[in-house]
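Q: Got a minute? One more chain.
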Amino acid sequence: MKFKEFKGAKTLSLASLLSLQNLTLANELKNQDFVYISCFEDEVLGSENLIRCEIGSISYVLALLCKYCLDFSKFESDVKEYFDELDEGFLSGECNIGEEEFEDLAIFMKDCENMIIDSTFFSHPDSKMIFECLNLLNLNTIVADSKIKEIKTYGNLDELKELESFDGSVVFGLVGDSRELVGSSSFAIAAKIKDGDEVKIKANGLDIERKFRLNSSMKGTVAIFKHSQINGYNFKVAKISNLG
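A: Always. Here it is, folded:
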């Protein structure tokens, strides 16, 4: 499937934190009819158009979007059979988006033209199925924070992988240059740290030191860091150690 440029039209954004990944695009999106699905409340996009999902559940979200939105008369019978057999109650519970919300999304998607994604989709453990679903939805798909133009899809629908557990202190990594770990008061309490503390962040593929900055406007228990390179999936369960 090929990725495109954003055009001013009705849009569903699945980007994790669009205002930090592409502020220009986030500001353009605000001027359109849009909905965004994320585990973060984006400070630029606000809460009114947010459908909050669980961390790492985008594969289940996309599978259910296909189930609710596709006109299966346009596909081979095996595609319809695949989505008919999905346990929508289980998937809905795991991603924390209700079946009624998916029914509303199906109405929204009838004349939706754009789908915004981000580079985390490429490192997701079930990236193959994510892009198979995106290809079936066949919208004008924009990668918010990458210049990649195309990805190969094969039309093979495999069993969805079980979601990883994100119990504990979770950090979200973006490529960039900053020595800060930015999080909410909820994250600080869970990690037993306070504003200004020097901390070590240790996770799979990650061992760095940062200064914690409390952002009182942030919600949830995921903190954000930047690094020159992110190895593996951008969301990580981390051990946070106070170096003070």
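A: The chain is about 30% helix and 25% strand.
Q: Perfect, thanks.
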